[in-house]
Amino acid sequence: MLIFAVAEWVPIVSLVMSCLGIPTLAALIVTDLYKRHKENSAKAKEDRLKESQESIRAVVSEELKDIKNDINGLKADFELTKQSLQATLRHELYEISDKWLTKGYCPIQDKEDFENIYKKYHALGKNGVMDDLYAKVMSLPTSKPRQKKRVTHA
């Protein structure tokens, strides 16, 4: 409102000063003061904008730090869950393989279960020992080997 009021009065003040015989210098001074006021106003607006931007950057930066911390915590939890699942699957594979390698055969359904668990375990990484165990179980016959009848001589 003040800027509007000053803007209206600058030409009027200049005219009155000229009519009263006040040197043109006084009119130039008034005009200069108005221009300075306008420039200061624009600078103040620019300064407020910069302050706002800095405040926003600070808030966003803090929020990003919190988000990064949350993500790092989730990564650690995920890795722990992955390792736990892998250990559970490895244990199950050992149990199944121990049972059927001892018996010398493995039914088709159990081989399919073993293979399904193995694929999930394998997808989690670090599979060296299980690869060999997988090959051994898959190479077992699917039914119990027939035992040869003993012929007894009387």
Structure notes:
- 81% of the residues lie in helices and 0% in strands.
- The chain is mainly α and 154 residues long.
Number of helices: 4
Count of β-strands: 0
Mean pLDDT comes to 83
Supply the number of structural domains: 1
Poorly predicted tracts of residues: none
Q: How would you spell out the order of helices and strands?
A: HHHH
State the shape. rod-shaped
Helix/strand structural class? mainly alpha
The major pleated sheet works out as: none
Radius of gyration, in angstroms, nearest whole number? 44 Å
In terms of DSSP E residues, the strand content is under 5%
Distance between the ends? 129 Å
Helix content: over 70%
Structure at a glance:
This protein is mostly helical and 154 residues long. It has four helices and no strands.
Note the main attributes of this structure:
154 residues; 4 helices; mainly alpha; rod-shaped
Blueprint (SSEs and pairs):
Layout: H1 2-19, H2 24-103, H3 108-123, H4 128-138
Helix pairs in contact: 1-2, 2-3, 2-4, 3-4
